[in-house]
Amino acid sequence: MPVSSPLLPFSKLECLIQLVRAGATLDVSTTRYAQTPAHIAAFGGHPQCLVWLIQAGASINKPDCEGETPIHKAARSGSLDCISALVANGAHAE
């Protein structure tokens, strides 16, 4: 019989919400690549997380260490849903 975990029922979005409620910063950057949660959600193809981050006030035009913004990451991964969410919320597409 598999061992159940209290975290298994949580989606990526629910985990993100819990992290922010616990004090995680919306625009915190990774130390190695300077990527924010918006970069990671966009590259991972998680539009629900990305929309939630945008509505919570995350920066969507902040570049990472390569100069790429979340819309670049969404394009790189081929996530049209993430691209649409970013464009609809004012992401710079140039």
From TrEMBL:
The protein, known as: Ankyrin repeat domain-containing protein 10
Source species of the chain: Eschrichtius robustus (California gray whale)
InterPro entries reported in the protein's UniProt record: Ank_Repeat/CDKN_Inhibitor, Ankyrin_rpt, Ankyrin_rpt-contain_sf
Keywords: ANK repeat, Repeat
ANK repeats: 33-65, 66-94
PROSITE patterns: ANK_REP_REGION, ANK_REPEAT
